[in-house]
Design goal:
The chain has about 500 residues and is an alpha+beta fold. The protein is built from 11 helices and 31 strands. Helix 8 (about 400-410) packs across helix 11 (about 465-475). The chain is globular, with a radius of gyration of 24 Å.
Length: about 500
């Protein structure tokens, strides 16, 4: 089923550049199972009595009074830097010889170089401890050079990033303060359709703003985190509480004032609120936050199966031989993964995880997201019509889908190698992937990348090895932005757009 192009998904941080609007039509078609959480039915297990008298009006005041002081305003500053869209731009400027470099700069300048302007942006965060730990969205703080947190009482503090998890779009920052009001997490498994919720944040650079709504869906996958990570984890709570740019990282709370989610995105044809907003469920937030505070990064567990996205069209199902049935159809099983050890094979249907039924890949991801590598998990699956059950330990890597990776990377028409550590140190780079040779393919057809170019990011996700590059390209969907440098000009960052992938 093709979705209307008018519907877009937007990460709800506010800034001078409001370009992070992504269409529903750009969902990645293949996903991997990442970390996840046990969940129950989205409906309460109660019977309906049509003769029952309606209950009292819901009281939002107590929840708002409790939660609002712990929701903070995050202001970010990203300094200007030199970037380039194309190192050969100078040769394509027909006016350079007539008007000189000053006029040529209007067309990109020497080598296509330009100075990106200083950017200021705004988002929200939730204080989770009395000594200043704050959870927010990764897209609020990613790339920022300076962070300032304004509390509900108008006091300002400089903040530092403790850790980020692009896969779930979460980050933890800290300010040096004590005796702060903070919020606790509720169990998002207990969230049900129709439940009243409040969204609290700082939209459109306003002061603390509270809106109300109900939970309209659970376990939603939007495909937006694939723009930040090659192993995205999504299982959003959908509500109709009004959320706008600037609400990113703010709290979604229940009527007890407890956090059930972190607001992250909106569906909109205009870039502003138009009916639906999405929050990362608190169980996933709690797991990621605890990992970051304990280890500095997320310890993600993997099952190691590939499945079609919830929005996969019938055409793509036929193309990938995806069958309809009860459970999640397994498109591929990674070598050396937990799923392979459980006996799961390509073409099987996974029907239960830890005894809970799953019908979509998003629900399956949700079951794994709160677990760690080494945790044991029970898998029930259908193999050739026979139900089988196995208990296996989750692993810290997804495993390799060799055939799929190679098929995707072949489209680029190039060979790659890991950047040598000594060379990386010489160029003041942490790591990267070198374009070793170029042949016929997307890189030569769509870009002016030359041999020797060092790829450092794909869709803002760092790539340290050739395998990570393959994963990032495979999970990029139909388009990607490649970022990197040339060894003779490492201070200048170049960006290239790739289209018609897969």
């Amino acid at each position: 089923m093709k979705l209307k192009q008018l519907a877009t998904v937007m990460l709800v941080s506010a800034g001078t550049a409001m370009g992070s609007i992504w269409g529903y039509g750009e969902y990645m078609q293949h996903q991997q199972v990442g970390s996840a959480i046990p969940s129950s039915s989205i409906f309460k297990n109660t019977s309906y009595d049509e003769n029952a008298v309606s209950g009292p009006m819901v009281d939002f005041e107590k929840a708002a009074t409790k939660a609002a002081p712990a929701v903070v305003h995050i202001k970010t500053l990203t300094k200007s830097k030199q970037v380039s869209a194309d190192p050969d731009m100078q040769q394509d400027n027909p006016f350079k010889d007539f008007f000189g470099d000053g006029f040529g700069d209007m067309f990109g300048g020497r080598g296509g170089n330009r100075l990106s302007p200083e950017q200021r942006a705004s988002g929200s965060g939730v204080t989770i401890s009395a000594d200043g730990y704050i959870v927010t969205n990764n897209h609020v703080v990613d790339g920022a050079d300076e962070l300032v947190v304004t509390l509900n009482n108008k006091k300002d503090y400089k903040a530092k990033v403790i850790g980020k998890d692009p896969s779930s779009d979460l980050a933890v920052i800290k300010i040096e303060a004590n005796n702060l009001p903070y919020l606790s997490f509720a169990n998002s498994d207990d969230v049900h359709l129709g439940q009243w919720v409040l969204a609290i944040g700082y939209p459109l650079n306003l002061e603390t703003t509270v809106t109300s709504g109900i939970v309209s869906a659970k376990s939603r996958s939007l495909g937006i985190n694939s723009r930040q990570s090659s192993s995205p984890v999504e299982s959003f709570i959908q509500t109709d509480a009004a959320v706008n740019p600037g609400n990113s990282g703010g709290a979604l709370v229940n009527t007890n004032g407890e956090v059930i989610g972190i607001n992250s995105a909106i569906a909109s044809p205009t870039g502003s609120y138009a009916g639906y907003s999405y929050a990362i469920p608190s169980n996933l937030v709690k797991k990621v936050v605890n990992d970051i505070m304990k280890y500095g990064s997320t310890k993600r567990a993997y099952l190691g199966v590939m499945f079609g996205s919830d929005q996969m069209s019938e055409e793509d199902k036929k193309k990938n031989n995806v069958k309809d049935g009860d459970g999640v159809f397994v498109m591929d099983v990674a070598k050396g993964s937990a799923a392979e050890e459980a006996g799961v094979q390509k073409g099987d249907f996974i029907t239960k995880v830890n005894g809970a039924e799953v019908s979509t890949g998003t629900e399956m991801v949700e079951k794994v997201a709160a677990l760690h590598p080494g945790d044991k998990i029970n898998i029930t699956y259908q193999h050739n019509g026979t139900e089988k059950t196995a208990t296996v330990a989750l692993k810290g890597t997804s495993g390799a889908y060799a055939s799929v990776k190679e098929q995707v990377i072949e489209q680029l028409g190039a060979t790659f190698q890991n950047l040598d550590k000594d060379k990386a140190e010489q160029l003041h780079l942490q790591s990267g992937v070198v374009v070793k040779t170029l042949g016929q393919g997307i890189l030569t057809d769509q870009t002016r990348i030359k041999e020797g170019f060092i790829i450092t990011k794909v869709n803002n996700t760092k790539v340290n090895t050739v395998d990570e590059l393959k994963d990032a390209i495979k999970n990029a969907g139909n388009s990607a932005i490649i970022t990197g440098v040339y060894p003779n000009q490492p201070q200048t960052e170049y960006q290239y757009a790739l289209n018609d992938l897969q």
